[in-house]
């Protein structure tokens, strides 16, 4: 087998494996190098997303949601299920099985598409050469017409709470608890902290979330974050903003965390487990030779242009190692774009239309600009909102928390943003993404026929409400 490739991808996460499959589909001789080894030292494709991120966290969120529903919500429907119990081992084993299926599925897709898979470490050398060190230590140097760097990200550690692997853990450890911690601390009220905190709160943990920022979920539209704060409080997620962790002390089987509260006063709190979820940083350690020519920015991200070209012609970088949100779908779409460009096609990505989701219950999802951003930019806009409490389908499902909010340009009616908190927000947001991708106005959605009864009708009604024409609520403003 020749060691010359049209494309060598370093990293087999959702950025890298998607880029490799697309490149191979387009007739390019493609290799993908992936270093991941699982707990049993078995090589795995799929990166953070499939192994310790999106998929396993959603498996646990779904299991814990079903448990919670059976325990607390079935009664409303007249269903009594007696004593509901959770077998945590079965829940975690199910999650592991899903991860197994999906990661080996990528191996199958590589074979089907003719991507050559290499298990070990890849390092970019000068002149688009790639050094591959297999897990047995054998070193080979590949020549590549094009290289795609897709080495992803790793959790940020904070000195006051260093990981111990058993009591103080990161997202990976939090997916593998084999019993429900009685007292669970979470540092960081971001996406990962809220999702993992929710899993264990539903199973009975007393969860305290310590968030250094003074405001809660500042990335969201403020209407959404305020509503989420109210709902999470009811769910007994104790979220403390302005709480700066200054130290942690392991005492036998527990950890005492010291933090400064919003008033600057020192507080102490003891937990059985502590999840550190303060963010992730790009991973490039050992991946770039000193003379590779690839530049990093001041925060350690690989510096790229709009089309993911690095400072070296023929070398691209995608996903969590480059600017933009750290999201699997953003990484994958960059992978497709770059493979298309390498194959000689015109391709670009619309970075203004990348949806974000937090998979708590209710889910939070948004795309485009929020009110704070538009105000800061001085853009004139109008807002339409529709609560799920007024949706027949949501009522039938006993899932009426939240609302859909559509923001449109005052002058042109173009949709500038959509913000949803609700049971199906993650799926509903796709409607707004498609509308925005096509440059739709709020009226375009208002004139579209939606099936009845569906929760999607809330998107329709929010679009109608933009001009004060919602049917199933009293409009604030009428024209
Ligand atoms: C708990 C959690 C939940 C998440 N949930 C979501 C979600 O619901 N939705 C969402 O969109 N995003 C979610 N994310 C984020 C998502 O997982 C990442 O944005 C995504 O995985 C990034 O893809 P990537 O391909 O850039 O990097 P990664 O998935 O990190 O993959 C990079 C791969 O490169 C490999 N690698 C690194 N260096 C080398 C090297 N030198 N040689 C060979 N291989 C190398 C790594 O082993 C890894 O497999 C979540 C993350 C976490 C931690």
Automatic annotation (TrEMBL):
E.C. number: 1.8.1.4
InterPro entries tied to this protein: Class-I_Pyr_Nuc-Dis_Oxidored (IPR050151), FAD/NAD-bd_sf (IPR036188), FAD/NAD-binding_dom (IPR023753), FAD/NAD-linked_Rdtase_dimer_sf (IPR016156), Lipoamide_DH (IPR006258), Pyr_nuc-diS_OxRdtase (IPR001100), Pyr_nucl-diS_OxRdtase_dimer (IPR004099), Pyr_OxRdtase_I_AS (IPR012999)
This protein's GO CC annotations: cytoplasm
Keywords: Cytoplasm, Disulfide bond, FAD, Flavoprotein, NAD, Nucleotide-binding, Oxidoreductase, Redox-active center
Catalytic-site annotation from UniProt: 452 (proton acceptor)
Family, similarity comment: Belongs to the class-I pyridine nucleotide-disulfide oxidoreductase family.
Additional record remark: The active site is a redox-active disulfide bond.
Descriptive protein name: Dihydrolipoyl dehydrogenase
Species assigned in the record: Marinomonas aquiplantarum
Lineage of origin: Bacteria, Pseudomonadati, Pseudomonadota, Gammaproteobacteria, Oceanospirillales
């Amino acid at each position: 087998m020749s060691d010359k490739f049209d494309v060598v991808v370093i990293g087999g996460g959702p950025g890298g494996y998607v880029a490799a499959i697309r490149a191979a589909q387009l007739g390019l001789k493609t290799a993908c190098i992936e270093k991941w080894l699982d707990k049993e030292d078995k090589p795995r494709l799929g990166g953070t997303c499939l192994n310790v991120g999106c998929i396993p966290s959603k498996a646990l969120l779904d299991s814990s949601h079903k448990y919670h529903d059976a325990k607390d919500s079935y009664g409303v429907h007249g269903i009594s299920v007696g004593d509901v119990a959770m077998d945590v081992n079965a829940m975690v084993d199910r999650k592991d099985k899903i991860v197994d299926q999906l990661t080996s599925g990528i191996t199958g897709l590589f074979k089907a598409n003719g991507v050559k898979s290499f298990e070990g470490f890849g390092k970019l050398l000068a002149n688009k050469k790639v050094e591959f060190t297999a897990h047995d230590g054998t070193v080979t140097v590949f020549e590549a017409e094009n290289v795609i760097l897709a080495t992803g990200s790793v959790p940020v550690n904070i000195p006051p709470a260093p990981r111990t692997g058993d009591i103080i853990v990161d997202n990976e450890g939090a997916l593998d608890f084999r019993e429900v911690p009685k007292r669970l601390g979470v540092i960081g009220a971001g996406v990962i902290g809220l999702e993992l905190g929710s899993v264990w709160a539903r199973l009975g943990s007393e969860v305290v979330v310590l968030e250094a920022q003074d405001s809660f979920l500042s990335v969201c539209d403020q209407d959404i974050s305020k509503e989420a704060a109210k709902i999470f409080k009811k769910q007994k997620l104790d979220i403390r903003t302005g709480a700066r962790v200054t130290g942690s002390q392991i005492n036998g089987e527990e950890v005492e965390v010291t933090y400064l509260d919003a008033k600057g006063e020192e507080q102490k709190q003891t937990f059985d487990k502590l999840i550190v979820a303060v963010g992730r940083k790009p991973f490039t350690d050992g991946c770039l030779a000193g003379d590779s020519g690839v530049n990093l920015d001041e925060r350690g991200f690989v510096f790229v242009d709009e089309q993911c070209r690095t400072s070296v012609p023929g070398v691209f970088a995608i996903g969590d190692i480059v600017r933009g949100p750290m999201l699997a779908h953003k990484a994958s779409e960059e992978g497709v774009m770059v493979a298309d460009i390498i194959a000689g096609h015109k391709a670009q990505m619309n970075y203004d239309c990348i949806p974000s989701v937090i998979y708590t219950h209710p889910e939070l999802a948004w795309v485009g600009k929020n009110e704070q951003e538009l105000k800061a930019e001085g853009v004139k806009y109008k807002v339409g909102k529709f609560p799920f409490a007024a949706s027949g389908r949501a009522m039938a499902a006993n899932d009426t928390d939240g609302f859909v909010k559509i923001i449109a340009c005052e002058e042109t009616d173009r949709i500038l943003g959509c913000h949803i908190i609700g049971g199906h927000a993650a799926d509903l947001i796709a409607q707004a993404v498609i509308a925005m991708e096509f440059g739709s106005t709020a009226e375009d959605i208002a004139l579209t026929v939606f099936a009845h009864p569906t929760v999607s009708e809330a998107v329709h009604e929010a679009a109608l409400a933009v001009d004060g024409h919602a049917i199933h609520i009293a409009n604030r403003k009428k024209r």
